[in-house]
Design brief:
With 217 residues, the chain is an alpha+beta fold. It has one domain: Trna Endonuclease, Chain: A, domain 1. It contains six helices and ten strands. The strands form three sheets. The protein has a five-stranded mixed beta sheet with strand order 1-2-3-6-9, covered by helices on one side. A three-stranded antiparallel beta sheet has the order 4-5-10. A hairpin with a 4-residue loop joins strand 7 (150-152) and strand 8 (157-159).
Length: 217
């Protein structure tokens, strides 16, 4: 995988992150300090409200990127949104991707990455190559105070704070072997994987289609 600045795709995946960064017990280290708002974030109560904001945050970015956005009304396979270019689904000319969206107001932000405890069930819905199209985790970081989520003026609509992406197709699903799917699996999301209009388009690169089992020949 190459960097997007070199006409490739953005750096991604925990294994790549851990190869290039060093720290105690293999945890990434170095880089910019966490933003100040993280230090004072205490969380808030309504998970449904927070989740709705996170999903609309992603919809706003995808719409600005001129992508078709389809919401999965019944999340039975770990997918909240399908994003694609206008046209027939699954073709090279009109590729599509799928996304699982999470939103948190109390992130564990480190220098170069964000630690996030993902439920094993959700992790297994993202890991491995056995999918029709590429899947991504989109993690939205929101302020603790819902009244700070959005600020509108005559010039612009400002949404706080940011969203990040992670691809797990090169990771192995958790082998449950008859065990319960309860519990969590910590994922490491590089802070370089900021989700923007431009980086959304990067996620449609052929590199990601080649990671899944249904990639075109």
């Amino acid at each position: 995988m190459t960097d997007s600045a070199a006409n490739g795709i953005p750096h991604q995946a925990p294994n790549d992150l851990l190869k290039h960064l060093s720290g105690p017990n293999g945890v990434p280290a170095g880089g910019a300090p966490p933003p100040g708002w993280v230090q004072s974030s205490t969380g808030f109560g309504d998970n449904g409200h927070r989740g709705a904001f996170g999903e609309e945050f992603i919809r706003m970015l995808a719409t600005a990127a001129n992508l078709d956005v389809t919401r999965k009304e019944r999340d039975r396979v770990g997918v909240d949104w399908q994003l694609g270019y206008a046209g027939r689904r699954g073709t090279r000319k009109f590729p599509a991707i799928e996304a699982q969206v999470k939103c948190t107001s109390s992130p564990d932000v480190q220098d170069d990455h964000i630690r996030y405890p993902l439920k094993v069930k959700n992790y297994n819905h993202l890991a491995g190559p056995d999918y029709e199209m590429p899947r991504f985790l989109f993690l939205v970081l929101a302020p603790a105070d819902p009244f700070a989520w959005a600020h509108a003026t005559e010039e612009r609509l400002h949404l706080s704070h940011a969203a990040y992406w992670l691809c797990l197709h090169d990771q192995e699903p958790v082998d449950l072997d008859g065990k319960s799917s309860t519990g969590t699996r910590t994922v490491y999301i590089p802070r370089a994987n900021l989700l923007t209009v431009d980086s959304l388009h990067d996620l449609f690169a052929e590199d990601y289609r080649e990671l899944v089992g249904a990639s075109c020949p």
